[in-house]
Amino acid sequence: MRGSKTKTDNKPSVTKAKNSTIGEARARRDEENRLPEGLDRALPFDVADVPAMIHCLDRDGRILHVSRLWLAELGYDRNAVIGRPLWDLMPASSKEQLRCQLLAGPPNGRGDGALTTELIGANGEVIEFQMGVFVKHDDAGGIDHIIGVLSDMSAHPTTRSVLAHLASHDPLTGLPNRRLLTAELSRARARADRSGRRFALMLVDLDHFKAINDNYGHGGGDELLREVGRRLQSTIRRMDFVCRLGGDEFAILVGEQADALGFASLAERLLASLDEPFHLADLDVMTGACIGVSIYPEDGRTDDELLHHADVALYAAKKSGRRTWRVFSRMMHQAAQARSRLNADLKLALERDEFFLAYQPIVRVDSLEVEAVEVLLRWRHSTRGMFHANQFVRALERSGDIVRLTKWIVARAAAEYRRWLSVGCLIPKLSVNLPAQFVTGSKLCRHLRKQIDQSGIGPHQLILEISETTFGSVEALPHALLELREQGMRIAIDDFGGGGLALSQINKIPVDILKLDRAFVQSSLELASDRALLEGVVAMARGLGLQTIAKRVETRDQFDHLRSIGLSGAQGYVFARPLLCDAVPGWLTDWQASLYSAAERRISA
Known about the structure:
- The chain is built from 20 helices and 21 strands.
- With 605 residues, it is α/β, with parallel strands linked by helices.
- The strands form four sheets. An eight-stranded mixed barrel has the order 13-14-16-17-18-19-20-21.
- A hairpin with a 4-residue loop joins β1 and β2.
- α17 crosses α18 (528-543).
- The protein is globular.
């Protein structure tokens, strides 16, 4: 509330444009209305035109934008305050206390509140205000921006309405947010308890949203989210409720149904609505979604239970494939508990030195000479025994810990490779699996280049294996991957033939080697049509100057079959099981001796 003034002889000076031309006045108004970069997505209203003294601060308290009434009352020119900390306009006696109060969060801890403060006008006048505060948090829970309103709040119903809307709605899509979802869940439970009918909570998560953000920028991603919100709203019934939880995740409360068929029908319609192309940057973009469903009361009687179980069902839907939905079951719950236990153990595994590396030789089919060894990750759990990488790598990818572990793998493999060279074990190359994060993040690629430069091995001694599924969008392949290849490293597509890439896309990718999917190779042994397909792939690769390598070759018959087709290389138990570091030199010596003996027998014959 406006209070006492310590100086009253001068009124605040207001910037005027009496002598401006109409064009200049319009330009000035446009400048006043223009929001700083990023804030235009944060606020769903025009700050300058709000009929109240309103300011918006960044997370550090710097002024991002103010209303015209704010400038008029305090007498400042807009350019004199934008970018300055709000504390610069406060008397020393109240500056530090208010700074701590604002950045620590509002007094009620919910995102809004009211504080009493003093500000210094342009003429030196100290004015006391009641400041209504709204703190907008980012997806990680930190402060994104702070909105303050300097006035007697009861005197400005428009401002109250704006702040109330901000507190309960997502600023990007205009949909209700998690806070309003909590209130709706409470009402839905009360209605269901009275009627004896069930309701469902659906979590909707978009497919390939990160790739769309990478391709079309955050502006394109934001437009996609707004359109998704509109489609979801147009698909549900009037009695249902949709909100945005954050990122690319939405929640839908589906009103009372007599049986599960109504929930299933709506889930199918929602997926169909998101299967239609989205128009971004003059292009039609395809996405899709997965949906997880929990049903009240059998899947939970509290908000936390319903949300958690819907999330478990969403995970099951995403694991089973794109554009699908799943309803929560107790078996899913048990699987989720097992994943949680696995994640907790993985967090400690690196600190406890439970990971180690094994190596499997890759052999040329024509000469049987060793061309490389693939680096294989293993985990020796202190109580649960041995784990192969395919049992835990997906969990590491979801948690983000795969980045830290990949850096460890590269460092450890390089050190062990140098040990082999020091004892005359001349393995030509190391083949290291590279997770998707290193392909989609140029910063990580730069870190990898730096790490390899410092590892003591040359880039030409490395093969980087990248899963075929990583190349879902060839056009989005970052320039950093090209630079890795130009430095001398070779690029291999792992598990090629699993369905992620069309043959026509191969010449668009900076690649040297195709490591063929095991199922693809196995089926060529059994079906003549699949053998013909494999022969075509090998011939195409040869024409493009690419090597082809078969994995998991276990018998002599399999090896002879692959050699007859013309593959470049192979690896598997027919040559050697995965070897520990200390066993590699001895195996190589024995292997080379067997090759020389065979050659001598051929010569003597």
